[in-house]
Predict the structure.
Amino acid sequence: MAERQSDLAIYLIAVFILGIITGSFLNVCIYRIPAKKSIIFPPSSCPKCKKIIKWYDNIPLLSYMILGGKCRHCHKTIAITYPIVEILTGIIFIIFFLKFGLEKIYFYYIIVSSYMIILALIDINRKIVPDGIVVLLLLTGFLFGIYGLRQDVTIFDGVIGALTGGLIIYFLNFFSNGKIGEGDIKLMTALGFLCGTKDIIYIIFLAFIIGAVVSLIMLALKKYGRKDEIAFVPFIAIAFMAKGLLF
Ligand SMILES: [Zn+2]
């Protein structure tokens, strides 16, 4: 038993490290893709003093802590969202591991969740859903054989799921005077394709409940007015993960 527990601890640490390394890459995508910059080149540099960040200052999570959240050269504060995204991704990788173990479906959830983290943060920062990432999400479905990772969803079910997700959000876009944006229609079509009809209905339902609760809280706290545009993708992302974990 003790041996099994130490095995589990090693797995958890490995999965967490994989998560924060992935999160570090997601950060690059979150900031560069909307700015239409390459995610490979050039290497990361400080936005203020432009000095290239050396590899030892670019270790996920660790470097942020060692440097006290500041650039080594000009001491400008590094945005707290960087370590938050890294920790969040690490935690998500661990939670799905605890739920599924190293089964194929685990990889399905961490791949799609990674996309959802990028899309959620870009929506929060810029209120957009980049077409390129949505297309890539679809391609990933084909290339990585998502249907091989999730054998309970067939391609046929994926197509029906895409139509269901897309059409529901299309009507909501129409009747909400565009408060639910066009980007959300594209995203739900792609997500419906990857998770099938049953899941996408659950996800839309959950996303609206979570969205409604959060909006009411924010209105009560006067964080924003009734007319402000709301980033909806974070709710879709949370709903996607909740569906995978809870139902
Ligand atoms: Zn600097």
Q: What stands out?
A: The longest helix spans residues 182-220. Residues 128-247 form one domain. The chain has a mean pLDDT of 90. The pocket of zinc ion is lined by residues 46, 48-49, 51, 71, 73-74, 76 (CB under 6 Å).
